Amino acid sequence: AIPPVASTEGAATPAAIAPAPDNAPLVATPPAVSGEPVIAREARVVGDGSRTRFVMDLTGPSAVSVFTLDEPYRVVVDLPEVHFDLAADAGKAGKGLVSAFRYGLISAGKSRIVLDATGPVSVDKAFVLPADKGQPARLVVDLVKSTRTAFLDTLRISRDRDRATAGHEREAVPGPAPNDGKLRIVLDPGHGGIDSGAIAKSGMLEKTIVLAFAQTLKEKLEANSRYEVLMTRSDDTFVTLRGRVQFARSKHADLFISIHADSFSGSDIRGATVYTLSERASDQMAASIAESENKSDILAGVDVPEDTNEVSDILIDLARRETKNFAVVFARNMIKELKPAVRLFKRAHQQAGFMVLKAPDVPSALVELGYLSNPDDEKLLTSPEWRDKTAVAITRAIDAYFRNRVANMAASEALTSGVGEP
Length: 422
Ligand code: ZN
Fold this sequence. Notes:
Layout: E1 38-47, E2 51-58, E3 65-69, E4 74-80, E5 82-84, E6 98-107, E7 110-117, E8 121-129, E9 137-145, H1 148-166, E10 183-189, H2 206-221, E11 227-231, H3 241-250, E12 255-260, E13 272-277, H4 284-293, H5 296-299, H6 306-309, H7 314-318, H8 321-341, E14 344-352, E15 364-368, H9 375-381, H10 384-403, H11 405-416
Parallel strand pairs: 1-5, 10-11, 10-12, 12-15, 13-14
Antiparallel strand pairs: 1-2, 2-9, 3-4, 4-7, 6-7, 8-9, 13-15
Helix pairs in contact: 2-10, 8-10, 8-11
């Protein structure tokens, strides 16, 4: 049952690309590179629950490689850098075996499309059809319904192969800290690239808002020559959660601040909120914000190593109590400074199991600047005056935190001994 597609998108597999066996990485031979960046103009999904075809119109030829992931079932399509010029709602709805899809930069020079599958599928074909007879070049991915057993067999074979060829990435042990007397602050604008984060009604993207905010905050902080300010990303690329934590650790950060502006069901939720790490979430809202943040790697089609799939316990235990306490002290400082300047959420300090806050040796906090689901917050989040005022307040909080390190030490010890617990 071939899906009802235009005849030019029919079963015509280019002769040069043999249908790949189930377990092979479906790599088409890269066609001649023209130098012009390839632009994706339109994407569509056709077919039914037994056989589904994904098609994307391209302005030129491109290499393509495809692999699958489970939990949840996904098909990941990697391409060299492609500029996506698609309708704002592209990918929100699917058809047949594809429930939705996302696209964007996954790393420098590399683009990715992630198809969410409704169940176990196998990739029958994946290729780029050259432009022909007035038709643009097209990326075509054919999926057929599979069984969980067959899907997992394919996945196991491809993981074994990756392990054999690349070896597992070892986490680099940070070298000795540079002895230059600088205080290192890592700013972590959330999301990026293929992961847009929350999307406001106006179409404004969280990833863009938080990057702009982080850049403003960096400028303010850099006025202090004692600070070295580093960013986990400074453009629209994707960084894994683990990559963000590793970056802070490798730089011997003294403080890590992840910056967000998420959505939350219920448009009455608004105001800045500071989150720190805890194995137990303060409430349902904190738990669900952390859960959605922790999905970033899944959205981006990253094969998360099993040992980090465990959201709770082991890693959190590793996070030293002292580090966590410093984070709590910092969060309280931040709320004190933010209070006169910006509107705070009524429970301004919240705790939950955010993966990005799990560096055992770097005090880490996550700030929700506001909630894009709230129209008033959205207005603020996109206002340069608000951005400036908030960045000044956070800078003051960071100044106070470092100025009072000795006092913080005492406050942290008080927390450890159970005194001063909220
Ligand atoms: Zn976010």
